[in-house]
Amino acid sequence: MIEFKNVSKVYNGGVKAIDNVNFKVENGEFVILIGPSGCGKTTLLRMVNQLEDISEGDIILNNTSVKQSNKIEMRRKIGYVIQSNGLFPNMTIEKNVMIVPDLLGWDRKKQQDRFNYLMELIGLHPDEYRKRYPHELSGGQQQRVGVARALAADPPVMLMDEPFGALDPIIRTKLQEEFLQIQKEVNKTILFVSHDIDEAVKMGDKVALLRGGKMMQYDYPSEILHHPANDFVSEFVGQDRVLKSTSLYSVKDLVDEVSLDSYHEADSAQPVNEDTSLRIVISKLLNQEADQLVVEDKQGNKKGKLTLELVEKFLHKEVKETPNR
Amino acid sequence: MMNKRISQIVKIAFWIIVIAFFAWTFANDLFRPIVEEFRTFTNLLIQHITIVLISGLLAIFLSIPLGIFVTREKFRKSEFWIVNIANLGQTIPSLAVLALAMGFLGIGIKAAIVALFIYSLLPILQNTIAGIQSVDENMKDAARGMGLTPAQILWQIELPNAASSIIAGIRTAIVINIGTAALAYLIGGGGLGAWIFTGIRLFDNSFLISGAVPVTLLAILIDYLFRLMQKLLVPKGLRLAEEAQKS
Ligand SMILES: Nc1ncnc2c1ncn2[C@@H]1O[C@H](COP(=O)(O)OP(=O)(O)O)[C@@H](O)[C@H]1O
Ligand SMILES: [Mg+2]
């Protein structure tokens, strides 16, 4: 757990980068720090692993104040990924990935097994890349290795500063999805900086929106989108916020809330899987690919018909009725 | 294409001149002193190498730690002063440095070694500083964030990534040093300068050539050895990256 308690940061020269921030990241939670450029996201992140001092307040990491911890030891228990991957060009991929386990004195066998496991996890062949050097990899591959390196010593906490920010959109989307899969397997407590609201909504269990060093809203993505706390949040998430929220829901969520129209064999309708995101569903319906979709569960049983009206009904319900948590 | 052809022509012209030069020296039997006074020659050569070696080693052992020192976060401010002091040694003409050293240490090899030592400090120091400062800030930040100690960052990240620049600095210093060491004779330091200056004074080309050619060959040989060393000491990943960037 990471707990920010009245945290403020004033840089030498008087810039107040963080202004009395309070929030908690629970174990296993994936929290996105977001906000306009210069709002203090990086500063807040770097205070957790003490790359920046805390001017006021404290950060409690797994029941210990980070101020009181031994910096070197603490950092070895926190995965750290930055935008420009920071791989060491003088070391092979294996050395790069195993740098923290090496510092911790793991034996050769344990390191090798871990390397193989991590490379499989990020989708790179261990033996093919073991002896390669960073410059021989593409940007996307380097960033994957950066993630593997941060995971190497199996730290409970990960700090990630716009890890996919420098990649082109197609690769970025791919890595986002891969990383969500990885997170399902490794279940880390993650603080992840982003400036892209779509990324935040897609990836985060919760979103922390900052502005000028102050916390504007800290809540579930659906809450941020449906119930922005103030005009700034509302403007930041965009006027299409309801549309954005559609990527948060799957057909299954809809089926749980509203009943589908009944389906007749004679109807011409495209099948759609229960796991499909509502965003895709709307796109399909608007696209004239079909006026209606027929929902199928995993076994292929047809559960009913889905139309734009139903989606609208569901979204209205969600926007109005989500309790303020 | 054009550039390649020009460089080829220059290369060929260079070798023609070299061959013509050696043909001329051998035709006039200009290496006679080396054969006739072989013992003197080896003594002078050894003196020459000794001056270069000791002054160079001293310069390396002072400049590299100094370069590391001034690039530490805490001592950043000292960089200005230290580089400027070293600069002073370099801007004074080599002959004046020799004269100054002689003023303090008197005539002899010691003064020559000290003068050349002072003269070699700057290139090594500058290249050490430049090499360490060119190490990507993000890379160091990642290292710090993962819990490497400052010493580990120095040895595992900064020095390997600066190695190419540091070795280039040493190479420059030593090669210049080999040429400058010929002046050591003027303050009684010995070395192959003895024959060069004798040759000049007596208008005797054979002494001039027998002194100057070995000095030149020595410089070329050392330059080559350092380039080889660069290959061995610069981490493979960096060398490959550099090569990839060039092509
Ligand atoms: N080392 C520093 N010294 C002084 N001011 C800084 C430093 N780093 C960041 N700042 C300032 O602090 C504010 C927040 O910066 P940062 O945390 O990098 O924002 P973000 O990551 O959200 O873009 C900015 O105004 C920035 O100029
Ligand atoms: Mg930032």
UniProtKB/TrEMBL annotation, chain A:
SUPFAM superfamilies: P-loop containing nucleoside triphosphate hydrolases (SSF52540). One of its GO terms (molecular function) is ATP binding. InterPro entries: AAA+_ATPase, ABC_transporter-like_ATP-bd, ABC_transporter-like_CS, P-loop_NTPase. Gene3D superfamilies: P-loop containing nucleotide triphosphate hydrolases. It holds the Pfam family ABC_tran. Keywords: ATP-binding, Nucleotide-binding, Transport. It catalyses: a quaternary ammonium(out) + ATP + H2O = a quaternary ammonium(in) + ADP + phosphate + H(+). Residues 2-237 form the ABC transporter domain. Its EC number is 7.6.2.9. The complex is composed of two ATP-binding proteins (OpuCA), two transmembrane proteins (OpuCB and OpuCD) and a solute-binding protein (OpuCC). Belongs to the ABC transporter superfamily. This is Carnitine transport ATP-binding protein OpuCA.
